[in-house]
Amino acid sequence: MSADPQGKHKILFLHGKGENAKTFRARLRRLEDALVEKKGDAVSLEFVTAPHLIGSDDKYAWWNLPPNQRSFTASEYIGMDETFKMIEKTWMEKGPFDAVVGHSQGAILITVLLSRALLRDFSFKPAKAILFGAAWPNPFDGELNQLAAMDLATSSYSPQTLHVYAMNDNINPPEMAKRIEKGHDIPMDDKSLAKFSSFLFD
What is the CA 46 to chain-centroid distance, rounded? Predict the structure, then answer.
């Protein structure tokens, strides 16, 4: 059941590093069409742009990294306070959202947000999430290990997640998820789109 008073199924989309809301929406045009085809006016899609500008080419990131570090090796994500505030503001003003979809850095961010929702009082609580090409958020290793030691079966909040990765992804290591044939990308074939729609709505 939708969390929206008007019955709309609201989905939040978080782009990867080097993108913005507009470019990410263009990449996911086929997915958007599939979701609208299944739900029509009953679905509302919200694409947002990360707060940190990379250079001056309309490319953004959810955080910056120390020199020569990757998201799964860094000891800190620089600028996360601004990102947390932005997500909470978006949730309060545009949500609540039934689901969230993220790619690469956006998918890693979802992992962090869900862990916070499970461990503390945090407004971000979607029922479902799809993570494309995520990696381990190393600065939040402690929180995730704390979750692993918890009995989540007794938690009042229990989100469903779908992890999608490629065996030949050379950006983020494919440790845990569903297998796809492409690299660090989002599959847009009919079979995959049907699976994503079914997961989000059924």
Answer: 12
- Number of Cβ within 10 Å of residue 202's Cβ equals 6
Please list the residues that pair with 54 across neighbouring strands: 59
Q: What is the pLDDT along the chain (202 residues), one digit of tens a residue?
A: 455 556 789 999 999 999 999 999 999 999 999 999 999 999 999 999 999 999 878 999 999 999 988 888 899 999 999 999 999 999 999 999 999 999 999 999 999 999 999 888 788 999 999 999 888 888 998 888 888 787 777 778 888 999 887 555 444 455 533 333 333 468 889 999 999 999 999 8
| Residue length of the chain | 202
User: Within 10 A of 132 (CB to CB), how many other CB atoms are there?
Assistant: 28
End-to-end C-alpha distance for the chain, whole angstroms:
10
In the chain, domain spans: 9-201
Predicted structure pTM score: 0.88
CATH code of 9-201, in short, is: 3.40.50.1820
Q: Assess contact for 150 and 180: CB atoms under 8 A.
A: no
Burial 141-174 (b: 16+ CB within 10 A, else e): eebbeeeeeeeeeeeeeebebbbbbbeebebbeb
* Half-sphere exposure of residue 151: CA atoms within 13 angstroms, side-chain side: 1
8 A C-beta contact, residue 87 and residue 124: yes
